[in-house]
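To fix ideas, we quote verbatim a fold written out as tokens:
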Amino acid sequence: MFEKIADKKIRDAMADGTFDIVADGRALDLTDYFSVPEELRMAYSVLKSANCAPEEVEYLKEVDRLRTALAAAADERARAPVRRALADATLRLDLALERARRRK
């Protein structure tokens, strides 16, 4: 009985979006989490908790940083080197993810 009540309360809160807000009121950003292949998410979460990020996570951060820099670039002259660096970082990420998939 108690489990059903608790389950209903949790489902209602999920439907209302209660769990989408972190403690300081900012929306929860799960972009990094969902950009990792589903079969690697749990392992990466454990590694992150242990402060041991695999190379793919570092590449994800680099790609995100470069995308932000590209969006903020003032003109094409500033965008060109960032675009090249983003292409290189994306390739490194893709290769690292492919290696990780093959290890399975």
Observations:
- Residues 2-103 form one domain.
- The radius of gyration is 19 Å.
- The chain has one domain: 2-103.
